[in-house]
């Protein structure tokens, strides 16, 4: 028996087994990030839309924070090339 004759059914079996294993639910958010879902903060919503438009990426989370004594938006972004970046925008002018 050739090794390839054995490997194909074995790999298929492993794939089928892995597909049937239940995936645990994601743990609750640890509070470090605030996921933006209808934040109610129009300035934050505009900042998120602007960052998405400007970068072409997808915002993962966004929140208003105090930074160096000023109000700012901390926006975590997944770029088009798969990198995660944090972008800071001043919230005072929004």
TrEMBL record:
Signal peptide segment: 1-25
Highest taxon of the lineage: Bacteria
This protein's UniProt keywords: Signal
Region (Disordered): 22-43
Protein's UniProt name: PepSY domain-containing protein
Organism of origin: Thiohalobacter thiocyanaticus
Record lineage: Bacteria, Pseudomonadati, Pseudomonadota, Gammaproteobacteria, Thiohalobacterales
